[in-house]
Inverse folding.
């Protein structure tokens, strides 16, 4: 039987118990992944006690409280705090989600927080999204049209055509979907992943775009598109309730139909 082991320097070790809620009666414990590549040390799990009587209800609120009051070295991304920017995407209790939209009360027992899985880690809860954004750029997420726009008005769409792009346009590029996809874990250098393919679909179905054929040509590849095996982890992980799996299936259908 094959035995698989992690490299020695990647094994997560027990970390420090920082406490932080002395005298409090309503305490929630957070176990947080800590890693600083500049130290040469293994990643570790540090624990923090948060006084929930003096903390707002979301996981991001607890992280900000920990950073402000207990451990200023804790590193994570955050911006809008409203589920719009996607910055605070992380793995919370085994699920990729946005810390600003995750209620602490929905987490049973100790809240376990890791960075998004199968991504290089810059520090602590901050993943390196360089490849992810390069894949997004590769699908040319902009309007391509050879026909000049009317001189006196914008390019118009019917209501039905507009509705086709409304949902995929709501993607906030948080990477929750792509980093929940096993195909992306193992082929992230060649498979574009659910987020990029959802955005590719958004432009393919845009009635104002005139590069549909070229876009489909670019995607018709054993790895870029067809590494998707319809596991649908992406759809379950999306914090905006989008359906990348369906978008990918629609792209495959378009490619099949044009061969007929």
């Amino acid at each position: 039987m094959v035995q698989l082991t992690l490299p020695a320097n990647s094994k997560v070790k027990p970390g420090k118990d920082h406490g932080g809620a002395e005298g409090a009666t309503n305490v929630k414990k957070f176990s947080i992944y800590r890693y600083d590549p500049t130290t040469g040390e293994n990643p570790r799990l540090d624990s923090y006690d948060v006084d929930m009587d003096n903390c707002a209800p979301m996981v991001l609120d607890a992280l900000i409280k920990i950073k402000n009051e207990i451990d200023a070295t804790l590193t994570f991304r955050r911006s809008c705090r409203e589920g719009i920017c996607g910055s605070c995407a992380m793995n919370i209790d085994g699920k990729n989600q946005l810390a600003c939209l995750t209620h602490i009360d929905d987490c049973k027992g100790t809240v376990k927080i890791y960075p998004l899985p199968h991504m290089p880690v810059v520090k602590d809860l901050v993943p390196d999204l360089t490849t992810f954004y390069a894949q997004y750029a590769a699908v040319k997420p902009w309007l391509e049209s050879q026909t000049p726009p009317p001189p006196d008005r914008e390019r118009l769409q019917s209501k039905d055509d507009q509705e086709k792009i409304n949902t995929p346009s709501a993607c906030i590029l948080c990477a929750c979907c792509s980093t929940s996809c096993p195909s992306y874990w193992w082929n992230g250098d060649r498979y574009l992943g659910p987020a990029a393919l959802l955005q590719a679909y958004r432009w393919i179905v845009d009635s104002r775009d005139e590069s549909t054929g070229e876009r489909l040509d670019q995607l018709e590849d054993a790895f870029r598109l067809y590494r998707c095996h319809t596991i649908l982890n992406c759809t379950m992980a999306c914090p905006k309730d989008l359906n990348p799996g369906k978008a990918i299936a629609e792209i495959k259908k378009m490619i099949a139909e044009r061969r007929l």
